[in-house]
Amino acid sequence: MIVSGAEDGNAIDRIAAEWAGRSLLGLAPEERAALAAWRAADPRHAGSYLRAVAIGKLAVKAHTEDRQAVAEPVPAHGEAAPRSFVLSRRRLLGAPLAVSLALAVGLGVYHQFMADRISTERGEIRNVALSDGSAAVLNTVSTIDVRMEPARRTIDLVTGQAWFDVAHDPARPFEVHHGDMIVRATGTAFQVSALQDGMEVVVTEGTVVVLRAGGASPIAQLRAGQRLTVEQGQVQQRSLDPIHVEQSLAWQQGMIVLDGEPLAAAVEKVNRYNDIQIEIATAQLGSRRVYGTFRARDPEGLAKAVAIALDAEVEKTDDRILLK
Predict the structure, then answer these.
(1) Cα distance between the two ends of the chain
(2) pLDDT tens digits, 88-112
(3) pTM value?
(4) Would the N or C end of the chain have less CB density within 10 A of its end CB?
(5) What CATH number labels 254-323?
(6) Order of strands across the sheet with 234-239?
(7) What topology does CATH give the domain 117-246?
(8) How many angstroms separate the Cα of 248 from the Cα of each of 31, 155, 166?
């Protein structure tokens, strides 16, 4: 039985791993309710659960031939997991990420990228095992440059978005750079997104420090469940509830969660994943707010839902979908 209570980090990881294993095999209705309650009880729970699910995906998906979207959603409503998706719960229970990765590499499960630059194509989500035992998940149209040195681990986020689960090593800080901003950690999990004039950081486990290059003191220290946005020189920091933490990582499941964004912003997100592009006929329509969860690789599904919700029309050709 999975129980909640006063837990340290290791206990939370063990419980999260067991929930992840059960989720991959399909949950009964009462189990789904218990999982939801446990995840809502502490921001660390949601982050640790997502991490455990990511480990499972890395183990079973690393050598997939389908480059369009290697992450699949966790089965819901009691559905059985696809055979290729099932991972033994025993392999997840109590296994720190560094140990899990080391075992996987030894078994030939992971592909170790030796090149310094790692990129994804349009519509592709890629799981990466780094040489230090850390893991990364790259979103569509994203690029990172990796430098593993004796005293430091440095990742340059060139474009896009990436989530990192960092192998603990106090002697070798793990830094993600974008522009003049630096996110520093020794062992934690966090997401970094490149913005047009800045970046966004969401911490799912542990703590990170955010600095400006050459700065004498940190801009902020973030803990699990917090988000920092630096854009056009403005710094905004806020705490997120577990649901919004999960929504910020929904792209790892091949999903996009829209929570009141203008339609124009929603379309921009979806277009990053698809060759067929959505266009909006008027600025007035583009300013309308949209809500819901959609598959990133289904622009037509989004367009149809928007047409119903906003009383719009859909005009489709071979290479575009026009909303008017």
Answers:
(1) 53
(2) 333 333 334 433 443 333 333 333 3
(3) 0.66
(4) N
(5) 3.55.50.30
(6) 126-129, 135-138, 161-165, 189-195, 198-205, 226-231, 234-239
(7) Jelly Rolls (2.60.120)
(8) 24, 21, 19
